[in-house]
């Protein structure tokens, strides 16, 4: 087999391996969770853990995240699967929050599980990608469900919850920095409940809204109407002062939502209002049964102006503020519809909220005002969205593809280079040890015609050609910038560009061409020097 055929065969094999590798990396992950999960935002990643599927079974050890540092369409979600590193048993209705010295560790507390070995607290470090069961000093190791954890200065407040048919109203305080348990005041504490809404306000108070004290609650998963049991009123809300460790009650007015539980709450971008969404309720309430706003300047409820396609109500979902959006994840009520696992509500304009399918991370989140400021006199204007990137613009997928393709390309280049060197050495041996000697044992210069344009390696499937001529081959590289310094490479990626497998192939072939060209140049120079030396010796004899 000629050297060209061998190199051609090796190139074809490696390119097929790289194509399979990239296709495997781009296989989308489809979660099976429907409700009862946790959603924790840490450094531009929304981590989803636990929950139940459409048949109310535990989803297993599903653990995944959504990269929110890049634009996306809710109809084309690219979930990144981390289930293979998850050590938490299957569970639902736990509480999650971030904490630790740098506020970048995921904490998971409580939850309902059939696995009796499940610990009360787990932590996940996104930097090392590891789960641990921390040792926490203190008095509590009870696995409650229906809790909402609220973090203030590294201390997480876990109030109430459901435990073995008992509804509680105690306040547990977890110090996520020093890893110890404490307790909050029970003076003027609200009645026992779970499945409530809880949000930290700019004045260091935590507001608690609604919930239920029924252990046998049942509701229609489509309409969200309560069939059995009851929910608690939203005509009053409760404030816990994290600084002074005391409770107070505020009466509300306006279009008070009907009694409800299993909903979500977030703080508006201006720090002056609380937005609630979804939940199961006793009666239909007012015009909009899923979205209400509580004005914190006067504790008045109202239904905001909304545009866009209004989604169906959801229960046991989660919401997070990410940029200018209220991001709703999963929940009962959407699994049998055409709605996405993720809902986006643009809340940057208090005069009109907009349901959208496009997430644009380029618009920064407006900074919150001072604690409970006076009503805002102006609304921030809505910014236009950047063009939506296709699913392959996901940064993590790009990096994974780049690394995998790069490693394969390196092996390809090294193997091909050694094969070429072996063939080159055989050619040198034929030239040096051939029959080109005179009777005196001196080498007779041989006329050589290096027709480099004729030595071409054909790549299968219409790939680019490698030529050993001296004319430069320019390969467009709009995304990748590489400086070849004998194996040292610099790769730069952008959120607005996609890495192409074709570019990687062309880059590797270009590198091989450069190596081959350089070796041939050296061989030519060596031959020229030998011929000059022979000529000088011949001239010396003639003189």
From TrEMBL:
Keywords: Kelch repeat, Membrane, Repeat, Signal, Transmembrane, Transmembrane helix. Residues 363-391 are annotated as: Disordered. The chain crosses the membrane at residues 397-420. The keyword Cell division does not apply. Pfam families: Kelch_KLHDC2_KLHL20_DRC7. The keyword Signal applies. Residues 1-19 form the signal peptide. This is Galactose oxidase. It comes from Glomus cerebriforme.
